[in-house]
């Protein structure tokens, strides 16, 4: 599922999995709850200087919502649209993960060393900074390919984070599989590296540099939220004013 | 505090100061009022062809709100005075966004926090390469951004990565501009103002179109929209 560690002032949230299936880190209710529990723990331990790195083991960062889980729920149900209902359930549960990340009182970095598709892509770009490997990893907003429209907060987050309308079209309306170099050019990812080790090191270095600033976590979170008002509004994240503790 | 001059059709609003402290051009209630009075005078004298250049003497364009003033007003209630200055400064941004003529900021010194907002409240900004950085310092002092600051940044700074660098990284941003010296840059500011002035645009139309580009911040500032028609159709 996922593990949480702390090294120095950096928290490491790692998506884990033993089986090949688990290594897709599919966002089902169980994993969503585990991620939220970990983020809640991170929030409770936050101090100025804290930062979060999110990473995943194996070939995937996350392959999106767990459609097989939805089918399994449907198989056990007599309701007509049970599979769709369970997907909607996961869409709603996942709002919490995005909310948690957008309101986390510290800088956040996603280390993308495997494919990030659909909700998995959203998980990555919910972080302040994204670094990615050049090989064996693509960003893929797969909804169009499976005939599904985008949840409102997915679109709002993409609009807020992906600046160019051509890039948004490529991502959403072409369902392009985007490698790291293209992702950097399109402004979706901050930096691309050849190896998993380099990405991991870059993520830690970014987190440490940002942590050194020892920013007030509250001020950081409020300023971050103010940069993405549309998605925050949809997620019900309220704004508040934060003053320096000593003026 | 500040002076206002007119050379040809260009108005020059200059932030001045004798002491080292005054040369930070800190936006306290007194300077805010002086700037508003000057902009009001500019507005009253506006004709097609008018343009405004705002500049500042010394090492700073403006170093933001006057926090020492806030502490002097009320040592244990300084926050209230900062809020007062945030509210008073809304008027400066409103005045600039609704000014019926093109505006140019000549940034020859550091522009921090509200000072950066003052600069980008202008239509055009030119800047010296050395001895001047843009710095949205709020994160570094643990303060969130007033609503109209964020809305103005969103409207003026097109790239989400650039906005992140400015606001969420509190980066000190140099000009990457074409001008090495203050003199070159001042000349460029005047030249930009003169070129724009030559168009002799209807000030009313200019102001309405400018406001329509930044609807979010104008909404927050209570600047109403209106339709402007050519005087002769």
TrEMBL record, chain A:
GO CC terms in record: peroxisome
| One biological process term in Gene Ontology | fatty acid beta-oxidation
| Catalytic EC class | isomerase
List the keywords (alphabetical).
Lipid metabolism
Pfam families in alphabetical order: ECH_1 (PF00378)
Reactions catalysed: a (3E)-enoyl-CoA = a 4-saturated (2E)-enoyl-CoA; a (3Z)-enoyl-CoA = a 4-saturated (2E)-enoyl-CoA
What Gene Ontology molecular function terms does this protein carry? delta(3)-delta(2)-enoyl-CoA isomerase activity
* Record InterPro entries: ClpP/crotonase-like_dom_sf (IPR029045), Enoyl-CoA_hydra/iso (IPR001753)
Could you tell me the EC number(s) of this protein?
5.3.3.8
Q: Cite the annotated pathway.
A: Lipid metabolism; fatty acid beta-oxidation
Q: Family membership, please give it.
A: Belongs to the enoyl-CoA hydratase/isomerase family.
Name of the protein in question? Delta(3)-Delta(2)-enoyl-CoA isomerase
The source organism is Salvia splendens
């Amino acid at each position: 599922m996922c593990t949480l560690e702390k090294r120095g002032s950096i928290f490491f949230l790692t998506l884990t999995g033993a089986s090949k299936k688990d290594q897709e880190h599919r966002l089902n209710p169980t994993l969503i709850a585990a991620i939220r529990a970990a983020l809640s723990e991170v929030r409770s331990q936050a101090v100025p200087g804290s930062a979060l790195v999110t990473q995943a083991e194996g070939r995937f960062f996350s392959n999106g919502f767990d459609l097989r889980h939805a089918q399994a729920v449907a198989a056990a149900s007599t309701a007509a649209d049970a599979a769709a209902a369970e997907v909607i359930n996961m869409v709603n549960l996942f709002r919490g993960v995005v909310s948690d990340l957008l309101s986390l009182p510290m800088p956040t970095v996603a280390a993308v060393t495997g494919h990030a598709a659909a909700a998995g892509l959203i998980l990555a770009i919910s972080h302040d900074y994204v670094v990615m490997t050049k090989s064996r990893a693509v960003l893929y907003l797969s909804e169009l390919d499976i005939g599904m429209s985008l949840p409102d907060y997915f679109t709002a987050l993409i609009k807020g984070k992906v600046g160019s309308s051509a890039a948004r079209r490529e991502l959403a309306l072409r369902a392009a599989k985007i490698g790291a170099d293209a992702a950097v050019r399109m402004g979706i990812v901050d930096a691309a590296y050849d190896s998993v080790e380099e990405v991991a090191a870059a993520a830690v270095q970014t987190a440490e540099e940002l942590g050194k600033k020892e920013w007030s976590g509250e001020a950081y979170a409020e300023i971050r939220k103010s940069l993405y008002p549309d998605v925050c509004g949809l997620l019900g994240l309220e704004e508040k004013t934060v003053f320096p503790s000593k003026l």
